[in-house]
Amino acid sequence: MEHRPALDRLTEAAGAAAQQGSGDLLRIVLVVMVLGCILVGWLLLRGYRRDDD
Q1: Phi, psi (rounded to 5 degrees) for 23
Q2: Which residue ranges run through the membrane (predicted)?
Q3: C-alpha–C-alpha distance, residues 26 and 35, integer Å
């Protein structure tokens, strides 16, 4: 079996990520932030719409 340093670094990084936990709080905060930005953008753009009847 030949030595592949890139693969070794990848497996070490994956092992370190598994030890640190899943980061559920960060994921929730990011999802809420993105949804909030979408909502604020939609509300702001909705106000600029003109209904010229």
Answers
A1: 70, 40
A2: 25-45
A3: 14
Domain residue limits, the chain: 22-53
What six digits make up the tokens of 29? 């905060």
For tokens 């909030």, name the residue: 36
One-letter-per-residue 3-state SS of 1-52: CCCCHHHHHHHHHHHHHHHHCCCHHHHHHHHHHHHHHHHHHHHHHHHCCCCC
Angle at the Cα of 18 (from 13 to 19), degrees rounded to 5?
Answer: 100
pLDDT digits (tens, 9 = 90+) for 8-50: 776 776 666 556 667 888 999 999 999 999 999 999 998 877 6
